[in-house]
Design goal:
The chain is mainly beta. It has no helices and 18 strands. Strand 6 and strand 7 form a beta hairpin.
Length: 332
């Protein structure tokens, strides 16, 4: 059986923040544990460090485990795209009996503003993830991963909470902290590829039609910051990151944050996710580090083509990642 839906995406023009240029990478070691038996806190307190909770979409119906989730991918045919000189976004959503397959040209569905020395070109993304993901016996660090960790429902690649080696004074730093992302949490890399390091449930970013805003490469959905506290979703809460800033994230971001859930309400695990009231795992977007994914709770699927490629260093052949992997070395 094969189910498909073709989605043509566009954009609403809006003003983006002016930010400085940079590149992309991931960084030091993340030790984590996502316990499948985790219980969800039942209070609805919102941490003062978080932005206001996004509204619950009018159509909040969610796909069951194993069901093709075409309904969570927005159909935005009426919007205008990245700009007159750029191709319109194209996203194709298909499902086999076992996989969700998303093909995208990687074009943002909102007005593009150059924030790095790189341009914006179409890409050839194909992501394949399981329809019935399972929590792994142990989590997988994303520290040394350069490249895609997941994708948005608007067909854009998701990167980790770390930049690349250029500029050197911000090497492997936190792109949110360093203010180098646009209003929707993205910018372009050396290959003229637009990607997100953070996600914002803003109407301009076209991520408000569903509480699910993306998928990680292990197949688990990425929700906005609001989560259900009961199966019928009559009680909700805004969930927060468990990471505290304990250093300077200007460079080597993973060294600047420490996971500590003590005394926090509705806090997520080290992967920035939780077990929902229906017993399934999900990640949540947060305004605080790691913003989207902190580690893989499931088993990341092996991708092919561009989706499997390492992120090229800013500036072409120069400035490769330091020795010890595709990201910064454990001791910087």
């Amino acid at each position: 059986m094969k189910i498909s839906r073709h989605i043509a995406l566009g954009a609403v023009a809006f003003t983006l923040m002016a930010c400085s240029s940079s590149s992309d990478a991931d960084d030091s070691t993340v030790t984590s544990l996502a316990e499948s038996g985790e219980e969800t806190t039942t209070t609805a307190e919102v941490a003062s460090t978080e932005a206001p909770a996004p509204d619950v979409p009018a159509n909040s119906a969610l796909p069951a485990l194993g069901e093709c989730p075409t309904a969570v991918f927005p159909d935005l045919t009426a919007v205008i795209g990245a700009g007159e000189e750029y191709a319109m976004p194209e996203v194709l959503v298909e499902c086999t009996d076992t996989e969700l397959v998303v093909t995208s040209n990687g074009m943002p569905s909102y007005t593009y503003e150059p924030l790095t020395p790189n341009g914006l070109n179409e890409q050839a993304w194909v992501w394949r993830v399981p329809l019935k993901p399972t929590v792994a016996a142990s989590t997988t660090s994303i520290a040394d991963v350069l490249g895609t960790l997941g994708f948005t429902t608007t067909g854009l690649p998701i990167y980790g909470p770390t930049e690349g080696p250029v500029p050197t004074d911000q090497a492997f730093g936190d792109p949110v902290y360093n203010g180098i992302l646009d209003t929707c949490g993205g910018h372009t890399g050396y290959a003229a590829d637009y990607h997100n390091h953070a996600l914002y449930s803003d109407v301009y970013c076209n991520l408000t039609s569903s509480v699910i805003v993306g998928y990680a490469l292990d197949g688990f959905p990425i929700y906005n910051s609001v989560g259900c506290l009961d199966v019928d979703c009559t009680d909700t809460a805004q969930f927060i990151s468990g990471y505290d800033m304990t250093g300077d994230p200007t460079s080597y971001s993973w060294k600047a944050y420490t996971y500590n859930s003590t005394g926090k309400t509705n806090v997520l695990d080290e992967c920035n996710g939780r077990i929902g009231p229906d017993g399934t795992y999900r990640y949540h977007v947060t305004d605080a580090f790691p913003y989207i994914i902190g580690c893989f709770a499931g088993t990341s699927t092996t991708q092919t083509g561009n989706a499997a490629a390492d992120m090229p260093p800013m500036g072409g052949g120069g400035n490769p990642p330091p020795p010890g992997g595709n990201g910064p070395p454990p001791n910087g």
